[in-house]
Design a protein that fits this description.
Helix content is 48%, strand content 16%. It contains 17 helices and 13 strands. It has a seven-stranded parallel sheet, with helices on both faces. A six-stranded parallel sheet has the order 10-9-8-11-12-13, sandwiched between helices. Helix 10 links the parallel strand 9 and strand 10. The longest helix has 25 residues.
Length: 383
């Protein structure tokens, strides 16, 4: 085995930066003198990545934004391809960011470089055909959920379950008292956590309904404390703009920067946008209501073309295989419906069977994490 292998990694968002940093650390345990280069955020750079570009260059969401940045993104991809072919690393690892990474991985694989795609798209939920496409791009797919490798197996793709990093980020028994103290929240008041999304479009689509639900709940629970962790400054600005509306300005919402995990642990109930946050709330062992809304046209297209393969949208419900937590989607995502579902959660402690199922999910998602991912990548390093 080469004494000093090299790896190129490309990550495009904060979640990918976190995964990439853990992977670099775990690979360095195996290969102390390895070289790591590519695209990453501050965590990956701190772990020792030679950053050709910062990860924020790839964090572009929305059609208009992508179109505006497309020439730069294509130029970056060409440059990363050129640099990678010149370096001839032992393994290239694309971390999520499929629109950027999959085409790059395919080109590199055809050029004889071993490729790994870390974080599977939700092929278990919609467009399963993407599994075969990933197989044409990547020699190996690293999966965060145990139900994903069997989907890839149906398409002859090598996929490994390595565990979800969030399973290691939460204690088995989260400490609500400590979380409330850290956020400056009352120890004995009912607390509702609002997480309307980590993207501006989600704040705009869901923020008013979430605040409307909180206002209705405050009528029934005058002492209700509301905490809203914001993913980034742009989301905070959009959310505080909504709070300035006459209907919401007296809610006294505690808006905090980041600290989503602490806010969930501190809460008696969580209202959140469907996505990874639902899994985080389950690992925090908290009751939740999951909500989402897309444009009517998008919903019509997805449903009409049969692209969506699941009836349950949230990760806790899918992992449990049943309706574990309430979902309020599309027309059902109204302040009244959200408040109605949340009220009993704020009045009564969570049912023991709910917490037991959360614990089962927590254990099922432990698969080795960073070290398991590093082992799967290291197997591809040529002897």
């Amino acid at each position: 085995m080469s004494a000093s292998p090299s790896f190129v990694l490309v990550a495009g968002e904060a979640s990918g930066d976190l995964l990439g940093a853990g992977l670099v650390d775990a690979l360095r345990e195996r290969f102390p003198d390895a070289r790591f280069a590519g695209i990453g955020g501050p965590r990956m750079v701190a772990a020792g990545l030679e950053a050709w570009y910062p990860a924020e260059k790839l964090a572009v969401m929305g059609l208009a934004e992508v179109v505006r940045h497309l020439p730069e993104l294509l130029a970056i991809r060409r440059d990363v391809r050129r640099r990678t072919l010149a370096l001839r690393p032992d393994v290239f690892v694309g971390i999520d960011a499929p629109d950027f990474n999959l085409g790059l991985e395919r080109d590199l694989k055809h050029a004889g470089i071993r490729t790994v795609h870390y974080v599977s798209p939700s092929v278990w939920a919609w467009r399963e055909g993407r599994a075969a496409k990933l197989g044409r791009s990547a020699d190996r797919v690293l999966c965060l959920f145990p139900m994903e490798p069997p989907v890839y197996a149906r398409h002859g793709v090598d996929a490994r379950f390595v565990g979800h990093p969030l399973a290691d980020a939460f204690a088995d028994e989260p400490d609500r008292t400590t979380a409330r103290a850290a956020l400056g929240l009352a120890a004995d008041a009912p607390v509702l956590a609002l997480l309307p999304g980590s993207r501006l479009g989600e704040i705009r689509r869901l923020g008013r309904d979430f605040l409307g639900a909180a206002r209705l709940l405050r009528r029934d629970l005058p002492g209700l404390v509301i905490v809203a962790p914001m993913a980034n400054p742009a989301c905070r600005e959009a959310f505080t703009t909504l709070l300035a509306y006459p209907a919401f300005h007296d809610l006294g919402v505690h808006v905090v920067d980041g600290q989503a995990h602490a806010a969930m642990i501190a809460a008696d109930a969580v209202l959140l946008a469907s996505g990874t946050a639902a899994l985080e709330a389950a690992l925090a062992k908290r009751p939740m209501v999951v909500a989402y809304r897309v444009s009517a046209l998008t919903h019509l297209i997805v449903k009409g073309l049969g692209l969506l393969k699941v009836e349950r949208y949230s990760l806790p419900n899918h992992l449990a295989g049943r309706d574990l937590v309430p979902e309020r989607m599309q027309a059902d995502c109204t302040p009244e419906a959200l408040a109605e579902a949340l009220l009993p959660m704020l009045r009564d402690p969570p049912p023991p069977e709910l917490v037991a199922e959360y614990r089962r999910i927590h254990e099922a998602l432990r698969g080795g994490g960073d070290r398991a991912a590093a082992a799967a990548v290291a197997e591809l390093v040529a002897p």
